[in-house]
Design brief:
340 residues; alpha/beta; single chain
């Protein structure tokens, strides 16, 4: 996708110049993984135009394998972002109808060849939100990945304004969730898919006390509904001000519920793609901390926290940079608990 925005916090209706950056949920995860030296391939459909090839070149320059991109269609999908400022909320306008991906159909991508030698297949709910044929192609990929025994990682990524072709978003995403092994979403998306309220996250600093017993019951019920999914990851953000956020995350796995330390981020630069950075961090963390779920969670949240400091959709943080943030938070948290 192409992201357009104005400089200096201008509104979309102000000024006469846009800046543009490439991005999008799965692309963001792919770039994050490549920055952490993972072998990652990005699969999509792009127009065979200079704009489409520039997008592929952008990913390739950042270390992502783009050899399986399908070329065709008329245009690349775009979105327009008006960042938040003070009491003014952010605004997003999508323009994805009739894009190259919009016209993707089952049978176009040779999934068995593409997924050969793959360990994890990362997919987003956005892939099923664009059009019916794109949703059908997504389920085709999920079915083949399941047949091949590939672990499926799912970011629910519910975007209300994208669901325009008549499908029931909750029913469609619920079916996708039933085919996945690990799932990520923010607190609002979890509430939406489950249709059940949860304890509020209202932290204004890192000393906020979480209602863990209530969350544990909540996640137990979620797992009972979708028993295939073994790892449930929920990101939680409180916007104290437009550029001051607190961030934490929960991981339910194997009947245990874990919490990451709360990150207090007083100088947010760009919050777009924070959830994708979290998933990129987690998919890498399960390789570098294979037996330590707590470290996996804390590493993932450190990656998400760092993304808030980087303009654009992509998290360009390396493993060393993420570890440095994680170790600082881990040490502070350990000392705090010890002195208590």
């Amino acid at each position: 996708m192409l992201r357009f925005s104005k400089l200096d916090h201008l509104r979309l209706t102000q000024g006469d110049m846009f800046t543009c950056k490439y991005g999008g949920s799965e692309a963001n995860v792919a770039v994050s993984l490549a920055a952490q030296d993972e072998d990652v391939t990005y699969i999509t459909r792009l127009p065979d135009t200079p704009v489409g090839h520039a997008g592929a070149m952008c990913l390739a320059q950042l270390g992502v394998n783009v050899n399986h991109i399908l070329w065709g269609g008329q245009r690349i999908g775009t979105y327009y972002l008006e960042p938040s400022a003070g009491m003014r909320a952010a605004k997003v306008v999508y323009d994805r109808a009739n894009s190259a991906y919009y016209d993707l159909k089952p049978g176009m991508i040779p999934w068995r060849e593409v997924l050969k030698d793959t360990d994890i297949f990362q997919v987003s709910g956005i892939t099923a939100a664009i059009s019916q044929q794109a949703a059908d192609a997504t389920f085709e990929a999920l079915d083949i990945a399941d047949e091949m025994g590939i672990t499926v990682s799912f970011d629910i990524n519910y975007r209300k304004n994208l669901w325009k072709y008549g499908a029931d978003a909750r029913e469609t995403l619920s079916r996708m969730l039933g085919r996945c092994d690990m799932m990520f979403g923010d607190a609002i998306e979890f509430e939406w898919i489950c249709q059940r309220a949860q304890p509020p996250f209202t932290a204004t600093d890192s000393h906020f006390e979480m209602q863990m017993d209530e969350y544990r019951e909540w996640f137990d019920d979620i797992h009972a509904t979708w028993p295939r999914c073994r790892h449930w990851l929920m990101g939680m953000r409180n916007m104290v001000a437009s550029n001051h956020h607190t961030l934490t995350a929960l991981l339910w796995t194997d009947g245990r519920l874990l919490q990451a330390p709360i990150h207090d981020i007083p100088d947010v630069v760009d919050p777009v793609g924070v959830g994708d950075a979290f998933m990129g961090g987690f998919l890498h963390a399960i390789n570098i901390f294979p037996e330590d779920r707590q470290r996996q969670l804390e590493y993932s949240l450190a990656a998400a926290a760092l993304k808030n400091t980087i303009p654009g959709d992509f998290n360009l943080s390396t493993e060393d940079e993420i570890r440095a943030v994680m170790e600082h938070r881990y040490t502070a948290s350990t000392l705090y608990k010890t002195f208590e």
